[in-house]
């Protein structure tokens, strides 16, 4: 008898590409490689120019004390990096980035996964439900976050208005005036944005061999067992895509935070995006903001490196 | 051996490292200010078009003054562009540095002077075109503030006027209906008036409105501080005093008493953007604490433009917290400057003269945007202030602004990222005034927020 986990392993076993034993490419392969490179060259040139220009520009400005006018710059060496790295506000923003990323990933791998599986079963109104779940991820985040922020207003916000309306005035909160409720508000907002993970799961679930599920059901596996031991492992590659996209997306969640809490209360929910934006907006600390941006880039590299190493170990 | 998966990461890291090396090898001194363009030759009867870009007052208001200038000077046309305040702060330095040809630009005296001064002509360089004795027509105090805002103590712009904060504006109809005959002068009187108002008019859901945004908290703090320590703000901002001194802690406590003794709802701290104005204009708030720019509500033309039905508004000092005298901080604002890139500085100077000491003042200030820089004791036209409360209010505002207090100057970066959040933490009870003052001082001296001589 085949267990669900064995089925999963069998389905997921990677197919290795066959390479010439000599390790040398054939002339045909080389020709194809050159043609591919030729087609890619304009794109590579475009990206390369952009990357080199922006890296050099950022790296240069990050060692200066300079305003938005970019004139009368003063070389300050590594001072900006030292000040950014030791700034508790920056450290707090980085930690918030990681916390919000963790919330988004957890929501995607649990609620998002289960919702996608439910929709895949063809439940009634599944198309309508899919649109409802996907919609927050498709409309402009600035608009979505602004409305959400307004809903959290203490006196005129919709949440407190609803509580008053149903006779629960005692539960009204200064949502953005306290750390715990402000964090909870951001978490709710991030959970609303699980539409894209649901889309990834929905598209990949269609590639799963249904006979495996049928076999598991015939073997007596219940719904939860099928989810946990069969479908979840089968979609391991989708999980990786989801984790990577959500993690990287959380570092670009500037608009979500800026337009909803704007860091309230007292900068507690700030992230690196809002930190750098505020430093740039200050007008006179563009070099400092550039140093913060480069440090953030380094942090993203480290996270990506850790993730790649973990994925490599897992694939062995 | 590197794997395929880690190779892109190594490549990107290498690129970043190379960029750092290249940047370190390059000239890091930046570019100096550009030289000024020469005056273009203008033949008799030739029409010159000036590009004028600013952020305040609004387009419709400024256009009246522009139209007046063009009527008086048929050979000079002006293209006016008004941007939002924060967009303008970011955009103007980039426009000027990019060599865009602008002839007259607005300068936020405190926030922008040092970010754009290297691209501006000094006022001395076109003083001859401003008219004889131009300086004697203007308020020397406001001119000095504009000059001192530049780190090299040079005058780069002529302010249209001054702004001051904070004041308390009131809806006189609501107060009269509640039996309140004069605006409150102390926190205790404020609490009593709020109680009367709430009993007489249930529509007043937020008796006192003001912004809960970080930037506004300094205005509130130093208004209460100024009541007992008039020069406290100046001494701190100029780097001569510390944040963790007893006067700051006392002022934080006084601000906190606005809620505990003054009867103001703490929910006001969630108001942002245009919320306070909306509540005030719609009659949901009886009082609005704001800057002199809110004096527009006293103006009949402003009310007509914005369809504000009620016509009985007044202005007064913010109630005194605990002893001391009413106070406001003032600063020159609305600087008009000529960029180095302008090819028509003579014509631009003529326009600046018209806007600061000429007939333009009456046209752009019908909405009471600024206290004008003109030294002639400017009074608005009779049609602007139509009620006694409005007339008394403007008079009281002018008298308060004329007092010797601190300048309304700030370190914007510190204000938005450290000071405002710290004050809000004190008001919400999540940090003690002592701890807040200590953390403010730590950040102030961290080297991240240049101030005083290092500005």
Describe, in short, the structure shown.
The complex is a heterodimer of chains A (316) and B (455). Chain A is an all-alpha fold. Chain A has helices spanning 4-12, 27-61, 79-85, 88-120, 126-138, 141-151, 158-165, 179-192, 195-205, 210-218, 223-234, 236-250, 254-260, 272-281, 286-315, and strands at 64-65, 74-75.
Task: Tell me what you see in this structure.
- The complex is a heterodimer of chains A (316) and B (455).
- Chain A contains 15 helices and two strands.
- Chain A is mainly α and 316 residues long.
- Chain A has one domain: MetI-like fold.
- In chain A, α2 packs antiparallel against α15, α4 packs antiparallel against α5 and α4 crosses α9.
- Chain B folds into two domains: 166 residues, Periplasmic binding protein-like II (D-Maltodextrin-Binding Protein, domain 2); 211 residues, 3-Layer(aba) Sandwich (D-Maltodextrin-Binding Protein, domain 2), CATH 3.40.190.
- Chain B contains 17 helices and ten strands.
- In chain B, the strands form two sheets. Chain B has a six-stranded mixed sheet with strand order 2-1-3-9-4-10. A four-stranded mixed sheet of chain B has the order 6-7-5-8.
- Chain B is globular, with a radius of gyration of 24 Å.
- At the A-B interface, α2, β1, β2, α14 and α15 of A face α1, α3, α4 and α16 of B.
Judged by helices, strands and strand pairing, the structural class of chain B is: alpha/beta
Strand content of chain B: 5-15%
Poorly predicted ranges of chain B (pLDDT <50, ≥5 residues)?
26-32
Shape of chain B: globular
Uncertain runs of chain A with pLDDT below 50, 5 residues or more? 1-21
The CATH class of the largest domain in chain B turns out to be Alpha Beta
CATH-defined fold name of chain A: MetI-like fold
Number of strands of chain B: 10
* Order of strands, widest sheet of chain A: 1-2
Task: Tell me the distance between the termini of chain B.
Answer: 51 Å
Binned strand content of chain A: under 5%
CATH class of chain A: Mainly Alpha
Sheet of most strands of chain B: 6 strands, mixed
Q: What general form of chain A does the structure show?
A: flat
Q: How many whole angstroms does the radius of gyration of chain B measure?
A: 24 Å
């Amino acid at each position: 008898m085949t267990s669900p986990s064995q089925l999963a392993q069998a389905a997921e076993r990677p197919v290795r590409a066959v390479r010439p034993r000599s390790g040398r490419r054939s002339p045909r392969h080389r020709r194809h490689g050159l043609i591919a490179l030729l087609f890619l060259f304009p794109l590579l040139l475009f990206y390369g120019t952009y990357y080199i220009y922006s890296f050099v520009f950022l790296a240069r400005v990050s060692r200066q004390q300079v305003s938005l006018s970019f004139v009368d710059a003063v070389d300050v060496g590594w001072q900006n990096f030292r000040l950014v790295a030791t700034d508790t506000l920056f450290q707090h923003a980085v930690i918030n980035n990681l916390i919000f990323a963790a919330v988004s990933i957890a929501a995607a791998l649990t609620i998002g996964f289960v919702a996608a599986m439910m929709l895949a079963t063809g439940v009634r109104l599944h198309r309508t439900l899919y649109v409802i779940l996907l919609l927050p991820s498709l409309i402009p985040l600035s608009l979505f976050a602004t409305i959400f922020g307004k809903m959290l207003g203490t006196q005129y916000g919709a949440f407190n208005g609803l509580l008053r309306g149903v006779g629960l005035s005692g539960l009204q909160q200064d949502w953005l005036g306290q750390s715990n409720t402000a964090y909870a508000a951001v978490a709710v907002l991030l959970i609303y944005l699980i539409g894209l993970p649901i889309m990834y799961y929905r598209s990949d679930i269609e590639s799963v061999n249904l006979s495996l599920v049928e076999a598991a059901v015939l073997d007596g596996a219940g719904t939860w067992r099928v989810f946990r031991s069969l479908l979840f492992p089968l979609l391991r590659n989708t999980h990786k895509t989801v984790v990577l996209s959500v993690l990287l997306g959380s570092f670009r969640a500037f608009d979500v935070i800026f337009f909803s809490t704007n860091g309230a209360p007292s900068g507690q929910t700030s992230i690196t995006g809002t930190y750098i934006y505020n430093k740039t907006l200050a007008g006179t600390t563009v070099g400092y903001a550039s140093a913060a941006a480069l440090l953030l880039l380094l942090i993203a590299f480290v996270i990506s490196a850790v993730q790649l190493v973990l994925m490599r170990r897992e694939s062995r | 051996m590197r794997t395929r998966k880690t190779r892109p990461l190594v490549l990107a890291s290498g690129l970043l490292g190379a960029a750092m090396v290249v940047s370190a090898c390059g000239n890091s001194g930046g570019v100096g200010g550009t030289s000024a363009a020469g005056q273009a030759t203008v033949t008799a009867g030739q029409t010159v078009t000036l590009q004028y870009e600013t952020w305040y007052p609004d387009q419709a208001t400024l256009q009246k003054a522009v139209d007046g200038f063009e009527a008086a000077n048929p050979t000079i046309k002006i293209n006016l562009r008004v941007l939002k305040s924060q967009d303008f702060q970011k955009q103007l330095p980039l426009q000027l540095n990019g060599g865009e040809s602008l002839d007259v630009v607005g300068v936020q005296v405190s926030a922008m002077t040092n970010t754009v001064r290297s691209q501006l002509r000094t006022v001395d360089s076109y003083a001859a075109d401003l008219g004889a004795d131009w300086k004697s027509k203007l308020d020397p105090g406001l001119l000095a503030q504009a000059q001192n805002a530049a780190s090299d103590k040079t005058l780069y712009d002529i302010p249209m006027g001054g702004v001051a904060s904070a004041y308390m504006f009131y809806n006189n109809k609501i107060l009269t209906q509640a039996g309140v005959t004069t605006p409150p002068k102390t926190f205790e009187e404020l609490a009593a008036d709020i109680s009367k108002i709430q009993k007489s008019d249930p529509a007043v859901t937020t008796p006192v409105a003001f912004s809960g945004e970080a930037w506004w908290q300094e205005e509130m703090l130093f208004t209460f501080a100024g009541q007992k320590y008039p020069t406290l703000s100046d001494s701190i901002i100029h780097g001569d005093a510390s944040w963790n001194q007893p006067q700051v802690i006392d002022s934080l406590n006084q601000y906190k008493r606005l809620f505990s003794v003054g009867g103001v709802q703490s929910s006001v701290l969630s108001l942002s953007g245009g919320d306070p104005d909306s509540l005030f204009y719609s009659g949901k708030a009886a009082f609005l604490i704001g800057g002199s720019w809110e004096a527009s509500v006293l103006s009949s033309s402003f009310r007509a433009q914005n369809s504000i039905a009620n016509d009985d508004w007044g202005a007064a000092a913010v109630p005194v917290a605990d002893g001391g005298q009413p106070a406001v901080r003032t600063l020159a604002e609305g600087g008009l400057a000529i960029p180095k890139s302008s090819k028509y500085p003579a014509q631009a100077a003529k326009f600046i003269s018209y806007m600061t000491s000429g007939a333009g003042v009456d046209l752009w200030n019908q909405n009471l945007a600024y206290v004008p820089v003109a030294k002639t004791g400017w009074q608005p036209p009779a049609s602007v202030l139509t009620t006694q409360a409005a007339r008394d209010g403007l008079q009281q505002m002018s008298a308060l602004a004329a007092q010797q207090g601190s300048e309304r100057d700030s370190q914007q970066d510190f204000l938005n990222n450290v000071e405002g959040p710290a004050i809000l933490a004190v008001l919400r009870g999540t940090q003690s005034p002592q701890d807040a003052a200590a953390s403010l001082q730590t950040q102030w001296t961290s080297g991240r927020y240049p101030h005083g001589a290092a500005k």
